[in-house]
Write a structure and sequence with these properties.
heterodimer, A: 1140 residues, five-stranded parallel beta sheet, 28% helix, globular, B: 189 residues, 11 helices, 61% helix
């Protein structure tokens, strides 16, 4: 087994951070995944439903290759991967060095609760007297100061909210495992020096801080302070500015010379705030304003105290850093708040709505009004709250809210059997993603969600707790309507702390506070070796975040690889497990007594005797605490000594033990598939006040079930398949070239097929990107690199005619330019066959020379065929043939192209009149700023509806005349433009034949279908076949590049290893019982089964099989069996459970 | 109406002025928040949103023949709420200024009212309601208007809101310098 030597740091454990971390871990790098919050999952931990299926699906990000390396349970609950070290409540505090060789300091908040000891029993929460708003439920309910950050985490440790905690010590007293240490005694040793000339100030500070447990000394003058400082050690000095004699600033200067490390807080009245700020430049940490706000004062002192005990610092060395800090949300209560947020109780944000309707939310999934708990009958969604708003420095579109709101409206409908009335108030409905338009249309036509094109201008109480919305519709008519709940689609903001992080790491932010990235390579930041994933690089939905994360991890991986993080042989050896298949089952059972809790509650002797009765148990022993280092060594020693070939450990929180079991495997030489951890702690929790005897019964039956399960476990080794470490890339456009280069840069051979005689694809028709970057330059550079790369063979005029094989081992026949054919073997294939601008005959295209497509316009300008200076007026029509039956999707790039071309023309000829007819301007993300610019430049935008399209007619003089309805002016207008440019959108090439060859699907629009739009956007449903670029869905050049990088990354995760091991839990077929009914083949969601016609039997592809068990469930003869869950095992477990 | 024709027309002074004013509202994305917020919108012949679009498009005649900007009471609601942060109330005022300067008010009462108001303030340094209304009615030269105000006038007098006594002449004309300076400045623009 080979592994890689490099390591990487991923900052932020939301979905993009998890994706990047898993990517790099699958590349066999060592990964540190940190997050400053105490839980993983970021914003997604609060969202139960995701469109279009209203399922979660996050688990689809888990590795499908070498599954045993990672946890295989719900990813929202937690994650384990053998190459990832997850550090929560941790921040990066320093980064030095350069790309390939960073020295990073991580520091974690003081853990007042030891996660190793906390068993999540909840007694502390019950004892805690403090109640504060619960962030997880977006403030809809309260929680205690000691709480579970996310209720569904596994394992789930309680956390103390340091700012809310009053240090009353109630939790410390009730904790049964002694996990809580508030470090109250440590405060006694933290000495605070208070310097003030007024006695009353000194006395009150002494009293307040004394009550918090700190030791306080006092000085009445600067001179006295200096004397005390030279005599004693202090943790903190509180220093008054205005004192007779030596003033505070002078004292500060001297104190800083004597003790440079001493934190100082200045005390000041309003009049001397400026002096206090000056003092901060001299080294004071902060200032306190008189008269004191006691809470603020104490919290600042506690903060200083905790920063001194925050000694959990750690130095790590990494080759690359991925920043995936996500995004925050704007607070509609800030700013001018015309929507009365936090004023009227039934005005909530979309996140609050999400929690309101969640099964784990305050109403257990019922749709009730927050004000009075009455069922909600009418709900409104208000879009663009804090987005597209120049006054809040938010000249961007948050990109996610339109779909978010449609989903919430549909969710509300489905929770109420369609009885609730839902209305979405919007300016432009931005359905720019693949299949989003169809989703919107079905919401409107089939589910009856109302879409009102209007920006609500104000909200008032509507009586009885309801809210009245005032608005003006598109035609200028005033409307007002009463709703039970109004949901504000609060826009996104940079994540909190991003400024500090940027300053710390030397990464530049853009004008809105998000990460500034390269124009064409959206994951590259201004600091080499630091890459941006997810929303931190710009506003993104799940699918785009996952793609962006893949791009960032690919860049990180390429960097580490280029710096010599190559392959090396690891100490780990797959063959070390001893062969026990010929031994009789002999189980060793270890019981964690949890510091005596178990032995106090149960008759241990009886339990041991009971377990030993089964016959297959060779030894039962106790361990004081398995979770401690000592306990673990006792366990390992005992197990080694026992020579047992099955191991059952009775402890708590089985999910914690993934990594430990693989260690145990190495120590004992026994495969982890023959070990099991059983939760024997939960039956002893207080709360379910069961009798001890019943707890004993539960514990005994849990252990026996596990023993029975392992007794019948098949110790046979799992299979593995050799991988051909070469890739085939079909399509030589920008996506194909990027993917080929990414794989080739990792040292693997790539064959790149291009059906035409030149590389570059559709991007050759583009002259420049929105920001002016030259696309021809980008293409020339890529072409030159591809053609000169030693690992890439380019085949022009070539196409695929046949393939067979599976992931890791394909044999593909290609037809070359000269008509001959050649056979390739490769492990993965990336399909990047691109697309074209759609052809059209609408609006006189082809009949009048004045009517062109956007690409034709761009080409005419580039070739000089069209001189902007000679033009009087230009019109553009968007959505030509798009977003209507026949081609019902948004092509995503056309609004941007129109804005780009219009701005360019306007730049060349400021007097030119430009008119753009549009349906919804899809200026998502930072494109919005170009839309604003276009408006500012005087470009006229005229909205039209598909029922009233503009009419274009030929005039007698050969020119054209456009007649169209302007809904704002409420009448027809006429234009006689010199040029009319049509945005016809993107269509894929004819990919049906290729799809059939590789056994994948195309959708009704002809684009390739991905395995899962959100979570596996670059995987096809056939393993080993990856998708990117326009062949998958319309996207811009940088978006295609990011997607190509993500696709290459997924391919590399597999190519990277010479051998793909199957998971230990896979299905198998007992051929003697099989009747060849083939039900299992159609039941298998992973295409892992096929019928071998020659041998007349069903075969399982063990690599493709994910162990879901669907085949075993449908098999009428019990011929299909999931390894580890045979009928015999399961029935024996049932027997044990029922004590038969 | 043809947009391109509107643009081809010979540029007059008011066209140039309108283009300047148009820059104020060019970033408008026609969301309609201004119209919705406007307390006078129901009295206007075209909505503020339409007005901005006409200003953007250079429809001089329609803009200045509209009564919309005359009815703006400068409550600043639209300016407060505009997500683009545009100076909408200021733009309304700018339109009033251009229209007054160029005489686009033949069918309008508001300019005469403003004029009467300013003249009285210039004269006394404060408003004298009765005299101001008298001046206003005279300027309109339409007795019907004066008659229509009679019931209101009587009501106000009964409540002592309008004083009929002769104005005192202490200090009239003291604002002349201020007015002159403003005129100079406006002329220089």
């Amino acid at each position: 087994m080979e592994t890689k030597t490099g390591s990487a740091l991923v900052i932020g454990a939301g979905i993009s951070g998890i994706r990047s971390a898993l990517d790099l871990a699958e590349m066999n790098y060592r990964v540190f995944l940190i997050d400053k919050s105490p839980h993983m999952g970021g914003i997604l931990s609060q969202l139960d439903y995701q469109f279009p299926s209203d399922h979660c699906g996050m688990c689809r990000m888990l590795p499908t290759v070498n599954r045993d390396a990672a946890s295989q349970f719900c990813l929202r609950k937690g994650l384990y991967h053998e190459n990832i070290e997850i550090l929560l409540g941790t921040e990066m505090t320093a980064i030095e060095g350069e790309q390939g060789n960073f020295h990073v300091t991580l520091s974690s908040a003081p853990a007042l609760i030891d996660p190793e000891k906390c068993i999540g029993c909840g007694q502390c929460g019950a004892a805690c007297p403090v109640e504060v708003p619960d962030e997880f439920n977006a403030g809809l309910v309260t929680r205690k100061a000691v709480y579970l950050p996310v209720p569904h985490n596994v394992p789930n440790h309680f956390t103390i909210d340091s700012t809310a905690c009053t240090r009353c010590g109630a939790c410390e007293k009730v904790c049964p495992t002694g996990a809580i240490d508030l470090k109250l005694h440590a405060r006694r040793t933290f000495r605070v020096l208070v310097v003030d000339d007024e006695l009353v100030v000194r006395d009150s500070l002494k009293e307040w801080l004394g009550m918090e447990g700190f030791s306080v000394d006092m000085a009445e003058s600067g001179k006295g302070a200096i004397e005390l400082l030279s005599a004693n050690e202090y943790g903190l000095m509180l220093l008054d500015i205005k004192m007779p004699g030596m003033d505070g600033v002078e004292v500060l200067k001297i104190a800083k010379e004597m003790r440079p490390e001493l934190p100082v807080l200045m005390m000041t009245a309003y009049a001397t705030v400026e002096t206090a700020v000056e003092a901060m430049k001299l080294g004071a940490r902060d200032y306190l304003l008189k008269p004191f706000d006691i809470e603020a004062l104490v919290s600042k002192v506690v903060q200083q105290y905790e920063s001194t005990i925050q000694s959990n610092e750690r130095q790590i060395e990494v080759g690359a850093v991925v920043m995936a800090g996500g995004a925050g949300f704007s607070d509609p209560g800030q700013s001018i708040n015309t929507y009365e947020y936090k004023v009227l109780p039934n005005i909530i944000t979309s996140i609050q709505f999400e929690r309101l309707i969640s099964g784990t939310g305050p109403n257990a999934g019922k749709l009730l009004r927050p004000s009075d708990g009455k069922p909600a009958r009418k709900i409104a969604w208000l879009q663009c709250v804090g987005s597209r708003n120049l006054r809040e420095n938010a000249d961007f579109c948050s990109s996610v809210c339109c779909m978010f709101s449609i989903k919430e409206a549909l969710l509300a409908k489905s929770k109420t059997d369609g009885t609730v009335d839902t209305a979405i108030f919007y300016m432009d409905m931005r359905t720019f993603g693949k299949d989003y338009q169809a989703y919107r249309d079905s919401a409107e036509k089939e589910s009856g969600v109302r879409f009102v094109r209007s920006r609500v201008h104000s909200v008032e109480p509507g009586g009885d707790g309801s809210v009245r919305l005032h608005y003006v519709d598109a035609g200028g008519r005033e409307g007002d309507e009463v709703f039970d709940i109004a949901v504000l689609a609060a826009g996104q903001r940079p994540p909190t702390g991003s400024e500090a992080l940027a300053e710390l790491s030397g990464v530049e932010l853009n004008q809105w506070g998000f990460c500034r990235t390269e124009s064409m390579f959206s994951s590259r930041t201004s600091r080499e070796g630091v890459f941006a994933g997810g929303s931190f690089s710009g506003l993104k939905d799940i699918s785009d975040s996952v793609i962006q994360a893949g791009s960032a991890s690919l860049e990180a991986s390429s960097l580490i690889h280029s710096k010599g993080g190559g392959l090396r042989v690891s100490e780990r050896n797959e063959g070390i497990f001893r062969d026990v298949s010929r031994e009789l089952p002999a189980a060793a059972v270890a019981l964690c007594s949890c510091g005596g809790v178990l032995s106090r509650a149960l008759d241990m002797e009886a339990l041991r005797a009971d377990l030993a009765r089964g016959g297959s148990v060779s030894r039962v022993f106790d361990v004081e605490r398995v979770c401690t280092q000592d306990g673990w060594s006792t366990l390992v020693d005992n197990l080694k000594e026992s020579g047992a070939n099955r191991i059952v450990v009775g402890a708590c929180m089985p999910c914690l033990y993934g990594k430990r079991l693989s260690e145990l495997g190495k120590e004992t030489g026994l495969s982890p598939s023959l070990m099991d951890i059983v939760d024997i702690r939960t039956p002893l929790f207080p709360g379910d006040e069961t009798e001890t005897s019943s707890a004993a019964g539960q514990i005994s039956s849990r252990l026996k079930m596990s023993i029975e399960k392992l007794r019948g476990a098949n110790p046979a080794r799992t299979s593995a398949r050799h991988v051909v470490q070469k890739a085939l890339v079909v399509g030589g456009g920008i996506a194909g070239m990027t993917a080929a280069l990414a794989i080739a840069d990792h040292g693997f051979k790539v064959a790149l097929l291009e059906k035409t005689d030149s590389l570059g694809g559709i991007a050759r028709r583009i002259s420049r990107a929105m920001d002016g970057t030259s696309i021809p330059d980008l293409i020339e550079k890529s072409v030159a690199r591809v053609e000169n790369h030693p690992n890439i063979s380019v085949y022009k005029g070539a196409g695929v005619i046949h393939t067979h094989g599976q992931e890791g081992n394909f044999l593909t026949t290609i037809e070359l330019e000269d008509g001959t054919s050649e056979i390739f073997d490769h492990g993965a294939v990336i399909l990047a066959t691109g697309g074209n601008e759609a052809a059209t005959q609408a609006y006189l295209h082809g009949k009048s020379d004045s009517v062109v497509t956007q690409h034709e316009l761009e080409e005419r300008i580039r070739s000089g065929g069209l001189d902007p200076a000679s033009l009087q007026s230009v019109a553009m029509i968007q959505c030509v043939g798009s977003r209507e039956p026949g081609r019902n999707y948004c092509s995503r790039i056309c609004c941007a192209s129109a804005l780009k071309n219009a701005l360019y023309l306007k730049e060349k000829n400021p007097d030119l009149a430009i008119y753009i007819f549009y349906r919804d301007i899809m200026a998502y993300g930072f494109l919005e700023t170009y839309y604003t610019r276009a408006r500012r430049e005087g470009i006229m935008f005229i909205q039209y509806s598909p029922e009233k399209k503009p009419d274009v007619a030929l005039k007698e003089d050969g020119g054209i005349r456009i007649t169209a309805f302007d809904p704002i002016l409420d009448r027809d207008i006429q234009l006689d433009p010199d040029v009319l440019a049509l945005s016809t959108g993107i269509v894929p090439g004819d990919q049906r034949a290729l799809a059939e060859i590789f056994g994948i699907e195309v959708n009704e629009d002809g684009f390739f279908v991905e395995a899962d739009y959100k979570w596996q956007p670059v995987n096809s449903r056939k393993r080993g076949v990856f998708l990117c670029g326009l062949a998958h869905s319309p996207r811009s050049v940088p978006e295609s590049i990011a997607m190509a990088q993500a696709a290459a990354q997924r391919a590399l995760a597999m190519l990277n290893r010479g051998l793909i091991p199957a998971g230990s839990m896979v299905a198998e077929v007992r051929h003697a019982l099989c009747s060849l009914c083939e039900r299992c083949i159609s039941a298998c969601p992973y295409d892992a089964r096929r019928k071998n016609e020659d041998e007349e039997r069903i075969e399982v592809d063990e690599l493709a099989c994910q162990g879901c068990g669907a085949c075993a469930a449908v098999c009428p003869n019990s011929a299909s069996v999931l390894r580890g869950y045979s009928d015999r095992q399961v029935l024996a477990m049932l027997d044990a459970a029922l004590e038969l | 109406m043809v947009h391109s024709e509107a643009r081809d027309m010979h540029m007059s002074a008011s066209d140039v002025a309108l283009i300047e004013v148009g820059k104020n509202v060019q970033a408008c994305m026609q969301c309609g928040t201004c119209t919705g917020s406007c307390g006078s919108a129901d009295k206007m012949d075209i909505t503020p949103r339409q007005l901005w679009k006409l200003v953007q498009g250079g429809f001089r005649e329609e803009v200045f023949n509209s009564r919309t900007f005359w009815l703006c009471s400068s409550c600043y609601f639209c300016t407060l709420r505009c997500p683009r942060g545009l100076p909408l109330t200021d733009t309304m005022a700018a339109l009033k200024r251009i229209a007054t300067a160029e005489g686009w008010f033949k069918d309008r009462k508001s300019p005469f009212f403003y004029r009467a108001f300013l003249d009285i303030v210039r004269k006394y340094g404060r408003v004298r309601e009765a005299e101001m209304m008298g001046k206003y009615f005279l300027a309109l030269a339409n007795p019907a208007v004066a008659l229509s105000f009679t019931p209101l006038g009587i009501k106000l007098m009964v409540k002592g809101k309008i004083a009929l006594q002769m104005p005192s002449f202490s200090g009239p004309g003291k604002l002349d310098n201020l007015y002159r300076k403003v005129m100079e400045l406006e002329a220089a623009q």
